[in-house]
Amino acid sequence: MADHPKPATLRPSTVTVHAGRPPHEPDQPLNVPITMASTYVGGGDKEYGRYTNDAWVAFEDTLGALEGGKALAFASGQAATGALLDLVGHDSVVVAGQSYLGTIGQLADRESRGRVKTRLVDVTDTDAVVKALDEDTALLWLESPTNPGMEVADLPALIAAAHEVGARVVVDNTFATPILQRPLELGADIVLHSATKYLAGHSDVIMGAVVVGDPSLWDVLKSRRDLYGAIPGPFEAWLALRGLRTLALRIERASANAAELARRLETHPVVTDVRYPGLGAVVSIVLPTPEQADLLTHGTLLWVHATSLGGVESTFERRRRWKGEGREVPEGLVRLSVGIEDVEDLWADLEAGLDRAAAAG
């Protein structure tokens, strides 16, 4: 029998389906079973449920193959973020671009306690980011596209500049996913995912993950996960892996819907700005007033007013309703997470909401 093809030789849409499965042997299940155990018989490699679980490993193998590195699952994206920021020594500098408000919140908390120094930069200004990097910089934190402004960074240039001063680079790849962007191939040291979003894809899991190219760094992060217990449940990991199996199809459909909606939104009179870089399924629009934005997000039938994103259903929200959102985000900005529904149904519902918002202006 011929050897099975290796993940590195397969295209991403195939990897999502075939990686992380049991061997092709008689009576083996196609899916890794859910092992609900806190304790294992001693003397082996597992020992205790805080150290490993078969469902985690299968998810990690699949995501690692997709990103081109070695993955580690966490209880949430925020737990993964915390583990990465713990790599930064006291009084070292973290240079961070526009980022998820939870990331900025963690940085602010650490800075208030004297743990780190933070320099916030605009990722669209490559020269300014490069100037912010110096020998005190331990970590460059990037999102591209950013949340919720949808700005795009010159990742290769910024990664190279950070490495010149000896800093590690984290790229939050939640929005793009490894179907559209593989930061490790661009030179990044660490990739972060809120697996809650597109990886799991069905709005029923909270989980996070990191992927690294350096096995010794994986060992460090694994030891921190073991120590602090920031672990996902076996069922959550199993659900996230099941969602991952359809990632390529969901991204293809949702991205096509997003591109078409962005094109139509450009011509609607109440929309003053459309932010869509042509990457992924998130579109941000700006309405003239926060009241009009709120009217839109509370007046549709299909679109769901919700703060999370990346599911099969379309959701949206006015981001400045959150006190922690950056002041650079317009009051009337609405972030749309476009799902896999029929685009004509999505547009009819959205257009009706926008018309009502326009009439109230």
UniProtKB/TrEMBL annotation:
The keyword Transferase applies. It holds the Pfam family Cys_Met_Meta_PP. PROSITE patterns: CYS_MET_METAB_PP. One of its GO terms (molecular function) is transaminase activity. Its cofactor is pyridoxal 5'-phosphate. Residues 1-29 are annotated as: Disordered. InterPro entries: Cys/Met-Metab_PyrdxlP-dep_enz, Cys_met_metab_PP, PyrdxlP-dep_Trfase, PyrdxlP-dep_Trfase_major, PyrdxlP-dep_Trfase_small. Keywords: Aminotransferase, Pyridoxal phosphate, Transferase. The keyword Transferase applies. Belongs to the trans-sulfuration enzymes family. This is Aminotransferase class I/II-fold pyridoxal phosphate-dependent enzyme. The lineage of its organism: Bacteria, Bacillati, Actinomycetota, Actinomycetes, Propionibacteriales.
